[in-house]
UniProtKB/TrEMBL annotation:
Gene3D superfamilies: P-loop containing nucleotide triphosphate hydrolases (3.40.50.300). One of its GO terms (molecular function) is ATP hydrolysis activity. It comes from Halomonas organivorans. This is ABC-2 type transport system ATP-binding protein. Pfam families: ABC_tran.
Length: 313
């Protein structure tokens, strides 16, 4: 296997006992140290995929390797490398923050390490709450406790299933900080989210899942390049029959009715006017082409995402 892939998912399918197929032949490799965001609408299969990788739900076909360990045959080994922050809040309502988090570490057979637990609680601003019973905490605090629990055994890979669903903007920012800090320490992070902005801000790569199929896996930067693509439409005073030769070799097309010129350009180049618009307008002027109106249009990651998930399978 590639030494960079810390997780390898191969031809994974999952059909629940109900007969519902939640995952369809998913192949995915997660690189060591990256932040991978899994985007998809409700019911797409995000939680199912995570649950199968973590060994909580068994696959119908296919396999998962975690750092080279088969997650079924070498379950304990594979699971010990993983921390999971589940989507649902589970309540051990009456234990304290400290006990809950320490207990989690013990579950993985790790020796007690109060200094580590303290570091984790401090990094999540939970230190002052360590003696509180969970039942006395706000929803956002409980979510932090879930993260603390997942980090208690020092996992190399952290799964966060909708970590910021329903939390306020400030807490969301805090969580992003925590996640970045973990990445700096070399932890690989896979998160699911409905928030495009979260994927944009955090992820190195983005995967889009729709109706159990992984329909796209792409570098965030590449998606942003597409996001940065704009279209300029110039409504002409006089229709043209074809593009003048002087304007050949540009990203310029003539509309079918000859009434408009359409120019595509990228907005996220370094430098100021890398769009070429100023030049284009000068050349149009020189060629005696006049226009009466113009407008621009931008494709966004949101649009790309929406069009991907809306197309019915
Ligand atoms: N235990 C189960 N038995 C039968 N069907 C299930 C089970 N768990 C999930 N499903 C179905 O599998 C599909 C995928 O569910 P899953 O929870 O993985 O989606 P999700 O992408 O995490 O959605 P959300 O964004 O709402 O969390 C859904 O149609 C769901 O109803
Ligand atoms: Mg889910």
């Amino acid at each position: 296997m590639s030494e960079h892939s810390v997780i390898r998912v191969e031809s994974l399918s999952k059909t629940y006992d109900s007969g519902f197929q939640a995952l369809k032949n998913v192949d995915l490799q997660i690189r060591r140290g990256e932040i991978f965001a899994l985007l998809g609408p409700n019911g797409a299969g995000k939680t199912t995929l995570i649950s199968v990788i973590c060994g909580l739900v068994n696959a119908s076909t296919g396999q998962v390797l975690v750092a080279g360990h088969d997650n079924v045959r070498e379950y304990r080994r594979a699971r010990s490398l993983i921390g999971l922050v589940p989507q649902e809040l589970t309540s051990e309502a009456f234990s304290t923050v400290w006990d809950t988090v320490s207990f989690s570490r013990g579950l993985f057979g790790k020796p007690r390490d109060p200094a580590h637990i303290e570091r984790v609680l401090r990094s999540l601003s939970l230190w002052d709450k360590r003696r509180n019973r969970l039942i006395t905490l706000s929803g956002g605090m409980k979510r932090r406790v879930l993260i603390a629990k997942a980090l208690a055994h020092e996992p190399e890979i952290l799964f966060l299933d909708e970590p910021t669903a329903g939390v306020d903007v400030e807490l969301r920012r805090d969580m992003w900080e925590v996640v970045r800090g973990l990445r700096e320490r070399g932890v690989t992070i896979i998160l699911t989210t409905h928030y495009i902005e979260e994927a944009e801000e955090m992820a190195d790569r983005i995967g889009v899942i729709r109706a159990g199929e992984l329909v796209l896996v792409e570098e965030k930067r590449e998606l942003m390049r597409q996001l940065g693509r704009k279209e300029l439409t110039l409504q002409l005073r006089e229709p043209l029959e074809r593009l003048p030769e002087a304007l050949d070799g540009r990203r310029l097309t003539l509309s079918e009715d000859g009434q408009a010129l359409i120019y595509t350009y990228e907005t996220r180049r370094n430098g100021d006017d890398q769009t070429g618009i100023a030049e284009l307008l000068a050349d149009l002027d020189a060629a005696g082409i006049r226009f009466k109106d113009l407008h621009t249009r931008q494709s966004s990651l949101e649009e790309i995402f929406v069009s991907l998930v809306r197309e019915e399978a």
